[in-house]
Amino acid sequence: MFFTLPTLLTWARILAIPLIVGVFYLDVEPTSQNLIATVLFVVVALTDWADGYLARRLNQTSSFGAFLDPVADKILVCAALLVLVHLGRLHTLIALVIIGREIAISALREWMAQIGASRSVAVHMLGKLKTTVQMVAIPFLLFHGRLFGLIDTQRWGTVLIVVAATLTIWSMVYYLQKALPEIRAKAR
User: Fold this and answer.
1) Which candidate, 181, 175, 184, places its Cα nearest to that of 110?
2) Tens-digit pLDDT profile for residues 98-107
3) Which DSSP category does 151 fall into?
4) Neighbours of 128 (CB within 10 A)
5) What is d(CA 137, CA 144) in angstroms, rounded to the nearest whole number?
6) Where do the domains of the chain lie, and which CATH numbers do they carry?
């Protein structure tokens, strides 16, 4: 199921990442760069919801789609975080916490699947909440200005990304605790 509509949306999310990064290399004023990158990120992030909805609605779910979807999300978030660090809008430590957790939990899930215990690290609401907060914080940080003349997106984005980093650690601890009994059983 490489070429179903939901899978194509996921591929489009991956292919759009260089566009979001590339915006900051265009010869346009910074406020235009920020706006273009923010709009692109939001549109691309919305395809995450759309591909899942369409996969269920059109009965086009697949194991490949289930694999590719979180990979696309992780690459999108990691690329955006690296851009924000480069622009000086995000502290490196927060980016490292979030990216490190993504790598660690992906590795844990892969290992748990190999030992036949993937259900113990299935996606939990805490992980979904973490992703949602990240997907709101990142556009605020990309925009880097006043939204509607009222909302200081840098301030709110910073608060939200700290909340996301906290949820990142919390969800990592949760997944590790769920996996620990299986890890102990296999270590014997």
Assistant:
1) 175
2) 999 999 988 8
3) E
4) 12
5) 11
6) 5-187 (1.20.120.1760)
